[in-house]
Amino acid sequence: MTTVSTVITVEEQAKKAKKAAKTLGILTTEEKNQALLTVADALEKDYQSIITANLIDLKNGEEKGFEQAFMDRLSLNKDRIFDFAEGLRQVAELPDPIGDVMSGWTLENGLKVEEVRVPLGVIGMIYEARPNVTADAAGLALKSGNSIVLKGGSSALNSNKAIVEIIHRALALTSIPKEAVQFIDSIDREATQQLFTMKEHIDVLIPRGGASLINAVVENATVPVLETGVGNCHIYVDRVADVEKAIEILINAKTDRPAVCNAAETLIVHEEWLKKNHSLLADALQKNGITLHGDEAAASLLPDVQPATESDWANEYLSLDLAVKTVSNLEEAIDHIDEYGTKHSEAIITENSDTAKKFMQLVDAAALYHNASTRFTDGGALGFGAEIGISTQKLHARGPMGLPALTTRKYLMSGNGQVR
Amino acid sequence: MTTVSTVITVEEQAKKAKKAAKTLGILTTEEKNQALLTVADALEKDYQSIITANLIDLKNGEEKGFEQAFMDRLSLNKDRIFDFAEGLRQVAELPDPIGDVMSGWTLENGLKVEEVRVPLGVIGMIYEARPNVTADAAGLALKSGNSIVLKGGSSALNSNKAIVEIIHRALALTSIPKEAVQFIDSIDREATQQLFTMKEHIDVLIPRGGASLINAVVENATVPVLETGVGNCHIYVDRVADVEKAIEILINAKTDRPAVCNAAETLIVHEEWLKKNHSLLADALQKNGITLHGDEAAASLLPDVQPATESDWANEYLSLDLAVKTVSNLEEAIDHIDEYGTKHSEAIITENSDTAKKFMQLVDAAALYHNASTRFTDGGALGFGAEIGISTQKLHARGPMGLPALTTRKYLMSGNGQVR
């Protein structure tokens, strides 16, 4: 495929998505739900074709020597595909945000004003290996009345293609035009870059993946971006933290799923608490196989602490490593989070509710926790229903993004000749 | 001033703003209101110093041969300055959005979740000639708990500086740190460009001014942008439009204030309606001194129609010019708006409520009107209180932006040891 033909293709796909969005945006909830259920059934019925395609991706991945964790995320089986279908059925059950009258009033001159929730239009989704995003993102987009342009990672190209083929065949039987789901069938980086500037046809870009993917989109896109996911999360154990809660929460936040964005990466600990409780803490950390990188004070009280560098404070480990920073008061803890946090999820463990309140007021992040694990920052866990990602930006959406994050509003004014 | 020292200065200013935002963000409503009233009084008391500075700007402007409309916007007098003060008093009376609990619930495990409204942090305001923006934007930012970095047009540099000096002297007597209002005292374009990429210190950029300023910010900023203002607004007069309403609304939307963004620029008119009503329409247009640029059908029915070019359909006149496009049905009208509209304000005049409903559903814009003038798209007119601009984007804020547009949210979770 030459570059020129790719240019034409991606733009044409985006245009088709835009056109389909007009039809999709005014469908009834029933029509959209019916379509999602039809796609769910089709994924289960034709799961074998996805597995066949996935085997090709896995073989290519092996030849390229991808690491095990990556291959795990890429790998599909019957259960995982049936989970996609179940996810779509759950999205069908979520309340439809479109058409909600968010507010309404009448001006003195009789002009009626209504603020109504409407779809964004076309969502551009740029993601890495996980093929489940293909089905999940399409489901959330369609339910909220949006078309979607999918650009998945090249390593999952065959799997994604097989999933989209099933979605297209199923949509052909429904009220949703199949052009509402566009898949960029290319491993060309340029195809991704074209999406960055298609302001005419794409209303928002959502990158999901590692920091370098997200940064590339944020730096280069003129289309508005919903920034997701990098979570350099801290647990601050205060001077008067309950020992049992502190250790249980820290271990949970670090070890429950180390590779996800709401896992803890740094323990900030009050020096007095650490002096009192270092042996209990050390036991728990050791028992859970956690590798420590700390400052001098931490190294003097805990065993096997490697000296922490700037990189330990700044980066997500996404592994069983933990940075340990000791502080002598709340302000030092907050300053550290200000400097290194990614505005995702931050927790304080303390029995002093004034200190907790101060922490939650002064730390700038999407989710703040008092005496609970950062692992709850998740659409499902917090009761939002399915999520399209976790926003670490402040505009439009913050924290787990459910269906309302994929909408905007219109002000509708009805009059009988009002002028100013 | 060398480039190097400017670089240091702008970044240092942004850092100071960020630091001040921490203090400002947790002030009480009373403290913020008191500060606004103190600034309002100071502007009235010291108005003469602003007028003196403004005279320098006006003299420079004359020497540069700026056109009259520009000089009008630049020019200040006692009344206008007292209006700034009155504006601040009005902002003090608006409800404080900060601290609002937008939603709250408790999970089955007992974890309490609260969604609380908080300030964005630091707002970067980039604007052109009007010095009133200096006082207005500062007032809205401070009331919503945000610091602001102001970069005004070079032609108003002295006026803006005088206003900010008064604001700073007044804030020194209040709970709001004066560092919360930063003014970039430079006519260097590079100073503006530095703001574009200061993601660490600035949370949002709001450009206010002409299309070229706004595009420069949108194209080049990595800081998130709230896009404001370009309004290529249409009035669609349907086949069954009431003649009186249609003409009154069109004349109002075109002539009430031709230079503002919610003024009408194009009349889209159903050919049958035009055939029936062209002479009444022509009379009204002529009486109001409106110059027409139209397609062939319009030229055949209305007097003195210049042939419309692509530029007539695409650009804001901001004058008493009007483009006229004839169509044979609603779909053609919507297609024209889709192609040339700027998603600001669009109106349909019709006695057919089904047609009106379809128009309001299918046209993608912030504000849709049925039988009313587009001139109502304005924070004051629609009852939002003061506005910081009119958003023509879909993310975060759409239409007139009042105080809530300058806020974001935090999710606060309170537990007693919950883990996943």
The amount of beta strand of chain A, in percent, is: 15-25%
Q: Specify the structural class of chain A.
A: alpha/beta
Number of strands of chain A: 16
Query: Would you state the CATH class of the largest domain in chain A?
Result: Alpha Beta
Q: How much is the radius of gyration of chain A in Å?
A: 24 Å
Describe the structure.
Two copies of one chain form a homodimer. Chain A has 420 residues and is an alpha/beta fold. The first copy, chain A, has two domains: 3-226 and 401-414, Aldehyde Dehydrogenase, Chain A, domain 1, CATH 3.40.605.10; 233-380, Aldehyde Dehydrogenase, Chain A, domain 2. Helices cover 46% and strands 20% of the residues of chain A. In chain A, the strands form four sheets. A seven-stranded parallel sheet of chain A has the order 10-9-11-8-7-12-13, with helices on both faces. Chain A has a four-stranded parallel sheet with strand order 5-4-3-6, sandwiched between helices. In chain A, strand 4, helix 7 (157-171) and strand 5 (181-183) form a beta-alpha-beta unit. In chain A, helix 1 crosses helix 8, helix 3 (47-64) runs antiparallel to helix 7 (157-171) and helix 5 (78-93) runs parallel beside helix 6 (132-143). The longest helix of chain A is centred in the N-terminal third of the chain and has 23 residues, at 3-25. Chain A is globular, with a radius of gyration of 24 Å. Chain A starts with a helix and ends with a strand. The model of chain A is unreliable at 1-6 (pLDDT under 50). At the A-B interface, helix 10, helix 15, strand 13 and strand 16 of A face helix 10, helix 15, strand 13 and strand 16 of B. Strand 13 of chain A pairs parallel with strand 16 of chain B.
